[in-house]
Amino acid sequence: APGAQEFIPPQADTTAELREAAAGCRGCELYRDASQTVFGRGDESARVVFVGEQPGDMEDQKGLPFVGPAGRLLRKAVDDAGLDPGQIYLTNAVKHFRFELRGKRRIHQTPDRVHIVACRPWLVAEFARLRPEIVVVLGATAAKALLGPTFRVTRQRGELLPWPASAQHPEDFREVPVDSAGRAADAPPARLLATIHPSAVLRADDQDTAYDGLVADLTLAARALA
Ligand code: URA
Ligand code: SF4
């Protein structure tokens, strides 16, 4: 598969322009079975960008990220952590829904490394336009995309981390602090904060404790921005 890079218009200044182009992405095979590309959404001047795994069944149908149960929980956690919901942008490491058909049901399948790598140029392009102060990495797939395969969310969550110079493919991140117009050579690179995925909160045996942990991690981001 060619990857997403050749579908990205370098002249695009905004995530809205990227979104338009991403509708036609064929950078990996996932576009074939999914309904549509689910690109990121939110404030163009967001201070915090949240990176999930991939759209779910409902997101695939609506064409918007985090509109299902996990999204509802995430928005509540954002509120409870004291983050301004008007200053966030929500996106995913992989922008098409990967699933397996069982009868008529579409069962979520975790994306493979090939999908994460193929789709990462969109994520990098979003960061380059948004220049967020903090990137919140939600769960293992987003962590693989941004921090490499050896990162363990369970052990390294809840810490503000410097932008990963040692990321798996550092060349992917070179352009991140600088947008396509060449602005922002002065803008510091974002810091990263890894935490549990909201879907994992919904699956936890003790949902209240898992939820409180998510809010506690997000509170760190809120404090860092205050
Ligand atoms: N889970 C994700 O990771 N992303 C979504 O958009 C929805 C659910
Ligand atoms: Fe393109 Fe990403 Fe969709 Fe693959 S998952 S087709 S790389 S947008």
List the SSEs and their pairings:
Elements lengths: L14 H8 L18 E2 L5 E5 L4 H6 L6 H12 L7 E5 L6 E4 L2 E4 L4 H18 L3 E5 H9 L5 H4 L3 E2 L29 E5 L2 H6 L3 H19 L1
Parallel strand pairs: 2-3, 2-6, 6-8
Antiparallel strand pairs: 1-3, 4-5, 7-8
If you had to describe this structure to a student in words, what would you say it looks like?
There is one protein chain. This protein has 226 residues and is an alpha/beta fold. The chain has a single domain, classed as 3-Layer(aba) Sandwich (Uracil-DNA Glycosylase, subunit E). The chain has eight helices and eight strands. Residues 167-171 and 174-185 have low confidence and may be disordered. Residues 52-56, 59, 65-66, 68, 70-71, 92, 199 line the site of uracil.
Write a brief structural summary:
With 226 residues, this protein is an alpha/beta fold. It has helices at residues 15-22, 57-62, 69-80, 113-130, 139-147, 153-156, 198-203, 207-225, and strands spanning 41-42, 48-52, 88-92, 99-102, 105-108, 134-138, 160-161, 191-195.
